[in-house]
UniProtKB/TrEMBL annotation:
Protein's name in the database: Trypsin-like peptidase domain-containing protein
Pfam families with a match to the protein in the record: Trypsin_2
InterPro entries: Peptidase_S1_PA, Peptidase_S1C
Upper classification of the organism: Bacteria, Pseudomonadati, Myxococcota, Myxococcia, Myxococcales
Organism, scientific name: Corallococcus soli
PANTHER family: PROTEASE DO-LIKE 5, CHLOROPLASTIC (PTHR43019:SF23), SERINE ENDOPROTEASE DEGS (PTHR43019)
Amino acid sequence: MSDDDQAHKARTDEALRRAGASLVLLELGGHTATGFVLTTEGHVVTSLHAVASARTITAVLPDGLRTQVVQVAAVDERRDLALLRLSVPDLVPALPLGPATLPTEGESLQVLHARPGRGPEARALEVRAVQVLGDWLTLLELSRTLPEDASGAPVLDARGQVVGLATAALANGRALGLVIPARYIAPLLVSPGPPRPLSALDAPRQRATRVRHVPQHPVNLLEGCATPSVESVAALLGHAINVGAPAYNRGDVEGCYRLYAHTAEQLIDERNDCPGVQRALRDGLLRCEALRDAEDRAWALRDTFDGLMDVIGRWRHARPSQPPSLARRPPPKTYLN
């Protein structure tokens, strides 16, 4: 090992040791998650989906001390973040967040997650893709999946700075390792609001139980479609999701559904050159007719859109003659509700 390699390893080991001192194992009655302390007041950030079903939360600190978590300081449902507060402050050092600058594709990162009865585990991973889901969220897709108990773990770059929070997620039925960037965590600390009881996690818990029904289409669904037509379909669907999802998250469920339905009807009317797309959209609208609740109808069409976006992504990757810039662009995925 060269002197430079040894120096790099020493810096990495020191960064992991420092981060490990702020790590918290969250026991949630049957499963565990990871969190890390951000302030001397005892604020702990973790993944919302990991704690959303919790009736009791016990924080196990690095020295083995156990303390109850009874307060929720802030919740960001759109970005799957929860800010909890320990019952006793200043028990472990705070781990400062790094700069808002995002790592780039191919960059090496370290995910440090807590484990019951053992020391923390560090996983070296790379950034597979930077995914822009809209102006409300840009996230990182990692090169490998993560165990569920790694959700909430700090993610460090090569300089030892915390660049975000790790989460184990599903996209179109496929397990993924993701990073929610630090830029979305910092605002939770600016004005967390008055402390709330754990029951504040009940609404996210109810939404997290929704079962998705995203169709898995064969690539030949797009047979006969010209490339400009497929890209036009993808652009219109992507725009509808980028507008409809924030509206849904603001509580305008009916508006979200109407936008999705209008988009589906528009594509059915305009895309006679893509009969497979028309057929998939008609199936989605037909499914909505059997649903009374606007929220269920909105999700039925979102599932329909995500199924089409998924097959378009696979269609792109199966075409060797496509321009390099298009071949490198990962297909949009459904990461968060």
